[in-house]
């Protein structure tokens, strides 16, 4: 667990004044491409696509006005889609910098997709924010957080394209697992940047050492969350609450689980009416967790979620 520096002031903008276009342009100018979406996401999708799946293009992110590429967006869908079967939705890379969300989704496609494809209709969007993946960033190039944009007033093309695509699939969405991480950079970079952008004062929180889940306040499904925690415990350690009984400033709902009102916050996990919803939070900066464990934890979540929902 890392201790927050509550007095950290971001280097762009004036304290108490929201960013204008000049500050956003400065911020974007400082971002750098650090890895390849084409090589690390698209190529493995094509290489390891199982026979039971089809690769679907659901649009493209056009950031050429920012001197950035056109990013094609891909989903993996059950080839034998059956209208009478429930849908399991998996989303990764809403925050592109959260690596195991993307790589865990890819590993699920490679290793476990076929095992479940006869029981449910699977729909996996492994990397919703490809520029965020390449630049290791929480926001998109417009300094917008896609994971606060899954609503009617979305300002994120990433979120809008994902929502539109998911809505094209008629049927009951039974399960939605949204794959995320909590990192030390949340405190060192992203929360201070958000406060500066919004003209607020930054208040960091302790970063928990370990895995935890964020359920939905409106449909917490405690047994479902508990089953996932028990599965993940076999892969990596679960975060303990802080001295106030909290994780990331929220009171525990149960061991390893806090709840957020997903729909009202515009979170990806709130974009459907799925009965069983959870957001993963892996801690890749822990000295007790390897990248392989982080990816495996994400896979364990998806499998446990489907197993529980199917009873």
UniProtKB/TrEMBL annotation:
Cross-referenced SUPFAM superfamilies: Zn-dependent exopeptidases
Transmembrane parts of this sequence: none
InterPro entries linked to this entry: AstE_AspA_cat, Peptidase_M14
Known cofactor(s): Zn(2+)
Domain Peptidase M14: 33-311
Keywords in alphabetical order: Hydrolase, Metal-binding, Zinc
Keyword Transmembrane helix annotated: no
Highest rank taxon of the organism: Bacteria
Zinc among keywords: yes
Family, as annotated: Belongs to the peptidase M14 family.
Name of the featured protein: Peptidase M14 domain-containing protein
Organism lineage string: Bacteria, Pseudomonadati, Pseudomonadota, Gammaproteobacteria, Chromatiales
């Amino acid at each position: 667990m890392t201790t927050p520096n509550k007095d950290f002031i971001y280097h762009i903008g004036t304290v108490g004044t929201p960013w204008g276009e000049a500050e956003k342009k400065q911020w974007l100018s400082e971002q750098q491409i650090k890895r390849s979406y084409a090589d690390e996401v698209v190529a493995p999708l094509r290489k390891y696509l199982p026979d039971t799946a089809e690769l679907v293009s659901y649009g493209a992110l056009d950031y050429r006005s920012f001197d950035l590429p056109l990013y094609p967006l891909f989903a993996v869908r059950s080839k034998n889609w059956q209208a009478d079967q429930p849908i399991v939705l998996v989303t990764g890379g809403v925050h592109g910098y959260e690596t195991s969300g993307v790589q865990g989704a890819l590993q699920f496609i490679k290793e476990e997709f076929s095992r479940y494809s006869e029981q449910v209709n699977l729909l996996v969007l492994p990397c919703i924010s490809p520029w965020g993946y390449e630049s290791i960033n929480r926001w998109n190039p417009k300094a917008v957080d896609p994971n606060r944009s899954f609503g009617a007033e979305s300002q994120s093309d990433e979120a809008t394209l994902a929502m539109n695509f998911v809505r094209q699939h008629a049927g009951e969405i039974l399960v939605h697992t949204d794959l995320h991480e909590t990192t030390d950079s949340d405190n060192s970079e992203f929360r201070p940047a958000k406060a500066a952008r919004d003209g607020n004062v930054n208040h960091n929180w302790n970063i928990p050492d370990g895995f935890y889940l964020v359920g939905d306040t409106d449909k917490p499904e405690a047994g479902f969350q508990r089953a996932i925690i028990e599965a993940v415990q076999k892969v990596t350690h679960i975060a303990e609450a802080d001295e106030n009984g909290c994780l990331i400033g929220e009171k525990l709902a149960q061991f390893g689980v806090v709840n957020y009102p997903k729909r009202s916050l515009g979170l990806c996990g709130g974009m459907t009416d799925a009965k069983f919803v959870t957001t993963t939070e892996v801690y890749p900066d822990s000295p007790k967790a390897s990248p392989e464990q982080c990816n495996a934890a994400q896979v364990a979540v998806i499998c446990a979620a489907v197993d529980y929902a199917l009873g």
